[in-house]
């Protein structure tokens, strides 16, 4: 399927099997936005746990400039990670995503967070959200350029590696950092991102790539990046499945997630 197709959808069925509907990424994530934060996605839950450690570690390694920083959440979705960034004093936070409905939820989440902290003047200078499609938009929003760091979580699965790292390089300053997490290729060989449409009961899926870590690192190096720190992998075990929920149990023994921090060489 053409990942840039705007309306193509196919429904398949077989005896005893749930219907599968294939949508282009933007249409799929617009639809998924309705249940994205509530449908028990264990990979998202695992990523949230890992980011509690990875994000502070990345911030401690920024050397492109002194604070305040410009930080970009590339493929920010519903703003799951942006609220963590908003607490950084005086830094500017930019969220980019291709799904208008995901960004609408992100805006509500950010506004609620800023109201809760009640010290907005001491928190981030701004949180700006912009529509940006890595697969179809040639011009990166100017507000996101010259960034000190990027986070991009569970996005790479949908993007060819060459396109992803080309855009990340355009966004970052020299010596800037990119924290990238993704579905592990071991899981990707068996499954792909998808969800059940609560209205139709169909399983909705979209274009996905089972990127191997070695290929991710090799492509990043071609685009002028080096690995900053260790490459992390996570496989589901019994203890982890109890934390992540019932949907994680079928993945016990399977590597499902990896995280890598890259530095753009000057």
Keywords, separated by commas or semicolons:
four-stranded mixed beta sheet, 266 residues, 24% strand, alpha/beta, eight-stranded mixed beta sheet
Would you write up a description of this structure?
- The structure is a single chain.
- The protein is an alpha/beta fold.
- The protein has helices at residues 25-32, 42-60, 82-85, 100-117, 161-171, 185-188, 213-222, 238-244, and strands at residues 10-12, 20-22, 70-74, 92-97, 126-131, 147-153, 172-183, 194-196, 203-205, 225-227, 232-235, 255-264.
- The protein is globular and about 55 Å long.
What topology does this entry show?
Blueprint: E1 10-12, E2 20-22, H1 25-32, H2 42-60, E3 70-74, H3 82-85, E4 92-97, H4 100-117, E5 126-131, E6 147-153, H5 161-171, E7 172-183, H6 185-188, E8 194-196, E9 203-205, H7 213-222, E10 225-227, E11 232-235, H8 238-244, E12 255-264
Parallel strand pairs: 2-9, 3-4, 3-6, 4-5, 6-7
Antiparallel strand pairs: 1-2, 7-12, 8-9, 10-12, 11-12
Radius of gyration: 18 Å
Distance between the termini: 37 Å
Shape: globular
Q: What structural class should be given to the helix and strand makeup?
A: alpha/beta
Estimate what percentage of residues fall within beta strands. Answer: 15-25%
The mean pLDDT is: 90
The main sheet comes to: 8 strands, mixed
Per DSSP, the total helix count is: 8
Secondary structure: helix percent: 25-40%
